[in-house]
Write a structure and sequence with these properties.
single chain, mainly alpha, flat, disordered N terminus
Length: about 300
């Protein structure tokens, strides 16, 4: 291009306004947004409203007050409930991540080598996922039962070992609850890890093999870095799911013995439907929401940004 033409093209291009094209709004989209907003936001806003009242399931005074908020958060049993919830959530999330990744690695490697049984392994893990929480709790209650017909103790007796107090020992019952929750929730982590593993470019493994990297080195320096986003997103989802788990616990232990397995979600359920304290349950629900959002924001801070991917 001649210099004269080039020089005249530059100011002409610079003179063009740098305007961003405004998104087009369909006329039918705004009513849909309004309906969805009311459908999803109204229950949440109503919970905030109830948290500032003295509402109960039996009716009564619903005048607005802040005392419900302060009295509920100052309950002496709440710190213990939060400690049980933290232990249950941490153990469940860590175990589900680890087992889900391990099963996904086995399935992917088996498919590459065309080994028999990989589909059976994947299907077996998914079966536990579709079992309802109440049913899963009942299944594990029969397995952990300390009576002669208890599944696990029967096996221990056949091996000549002493029976274990799976559900009556306060130091052991939490791990029994974690096992039942991990059994049910691992399949979700396995599906997420399986999809992420299938999306990794095989060229990366070929380059690592050419460089002489061993299998553990390929796992540490190729697989896990490529799975970072999937691991963090999966951690957000299963953390929220675990914090909201109460159906399996209520059918397995009922929160006992004592309050050794009463997590925050089950405590909220008991406050509302056993103590009939609707306002206190609303405060505890908001507390669960704050904890879930806080953990989600912490996890999201470690997600790779656009330039890091």
């Amino acid at each position: 291009m001649p210099p004269a033409i080039a020089s005249s093209a530059v100011p002409r291009a610079a003179a063009l306004p740098n305007r961003r094209q405004r998104p087009r709004v369909a006329p039918w989209l705004m009513p849909l947004i309004l309906v969805l907003g009311l459908f999803y936001l109204y229950p949440v806003l109503d919970v905030f409203r109830l948290a500032l009242t003295r509402a109960t399931l039996l009716g009564g005074d619903e005048g607005y007050t802040v005392s419900t908020l302060t009295q509920t958060l100052a309950r002496p049993e709440l710190p213990g409930i939060l400690g049980v919830t933290a232990l249950f959530t941490l153990a469940s999330v860590f175990s589900q991540q680890l087992l889900g990744l391990a099963i996904a690695l086995v399935v992917v490697r088996g498919e590459k080598r065309r080994l028999f049984g990989t589909t059976i392994v994947r299907t077996t893990a998914l079966i536990a996922w579709v079992v309802p929480g109440i049913a899963g709790g009942i299944i594990w209650k029969m397995l952990f039962n300390e009576a002669p017909f208890g599944g696990l103790n029967s096996i221990l007796r056949l091996m000549g070992a002493a029976p274990v107090q799976w559900l009556s020992d306060p130091d052991l019952v939490m791990w029994s609850v974690v096992i039942s929750n991990v059994w049910r929730g691992t399949a979700f982590s396995m599906v997420v890890m399986y999809a992420a593993l299938k999306a990794i470019d095989p060229v990366l493994y070929e380059a690592a093999a050419v460089d002489g990297a061993s299998a553990p080195q390929r796992l540490m320096h190729v697989t896990l870095p490529q799975l970072r986003s999937a691991i963090l997103v999966n951690m957000i989802l299963i953390t929220i799911q675990t914090l909201n788990t109460f159906d399996a616990i209520i059918s397995l232990t009922g929160g006992g013995p004592g309050r050794s397995t009463e997590v925050l979600s089950l405590y909220t359920f008991n406050v509302v439907f056993r103590n009939y304290d609707l306002a206190g349950g609303a405060v505890l629900s908001i507390l669960m929401l704050v904890i879930s959002l806080g953990l989600a924001l912490v996890y999201a801070a470690f997600l790779p940004k656009g330039e890091d991917r």
